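Hey all, quick one. A colleague (J.T.) asked me to put the zinc ion job into the tracker so the inputs and the structure tokens live in one place instead of scattered across chat threads. No bug as far as I know, just bookkeeping. Sequence used:
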Amino acid sequence: MLAAVLHGPNDLRVEHVNDPIIGAGELLVKVEACAICGTDLRIVKGTKTRGVHYPSIIGHEFAGTVVDVGEGVTNFAPGDHVAVAPIIPCRNCAYCVNGQENVCLNRVAIGYEFNGGFAELVCIPAVVLDAGNIVKIDPGVPLEAAALAEPLSCCLNGQRKARVRLNSNVVIIGAGPIGLMHIMLARAAGAAQIIVSELLPNRRERALAAGADVVIDPGRENLLEIVKNCTNGLGADIVILAIGVPALVNDTLRLLRKGGHLNFFAGMPEGATSSIDANLIHYNELRLSGTSASTRQDFYEALNLIVTGKIAASSLISHRFPLREADQAFAVAFAGEGEKVVIYPSQSGR
Ligand SMILES: [Zn+2]
Ligand SMILES: [Zn+2]
């Protein structure tokens, strides 16, 4: 089969490799669509290494069609369309037991420890099936949309932590694919106003199309002034920091009303620090939260939002490539000007 194999940092090669051979309890899935995640970019660059090995096939945001089932598999059959929740919690550690399986101490993931979706075929190990990480979906649901359930599930986790709800005034910093998902989720949750800050003009346009009420260019406009104007001088209920820029943290705290909530959704560059005026938190009784990955329940709910059309996931895709053009796909994703970049391995020609 054709696969994009990562041989080391900055060494991704599209090449022919042996088809995976499945064993008992496993599934062989033909990958129809696999999206490039910001994390994949960090893995390719070599700045994220946890769980990564070489050579390996990365890609954890994908959906496909079952082509073969291993001995003992009874709940899936060839032809089934499936979405894949890539993170497999151990279900045993202190965090799993406490309902925080997204930060499981022993978690493994497809696209990291197990080969992922930038390939024509992927073997789904038995442990993944056992954990309920493979979800059958209606054949009428576009698989490219289902492939985006994983990033959407992380955003859903973030919005829960930040308690976005009916009538919330929400500020979202950054309108990349993750920022757009936050816009769509906040809209679906009944937010009163969604204010978005984004430097790139094409991303600002997409933010408006995704449902933002006010979209500003922080290079030219004063976000704090605009947020105050939109909220009777009070400030936002919730700010979601969807870009990993440490220098923004303090200014972001100033956007909040008393009792407001800042969610650190994006990861920051490793080792980066930001200096903050702690009195902003103290006197304004601000609440802060972080968000890392998602639970299986988050995934099921995110997928349901896509399947029912509540979230128009396909509209987040700005670029589509066959697998043999994976290099170009990654170049576009690295340039960071589009939104979701998706690779379609089954159209690559064998
Ligand atoms: Zn991802
Ligand atoms: Zn665990």
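Adding what we noticed when we looked at it: Residues 89-90, 92-93, 95-96, 101, 104-106 surround zinc ion (ligand 2) (CB under 6 Å). The mean pLDDT is 96.
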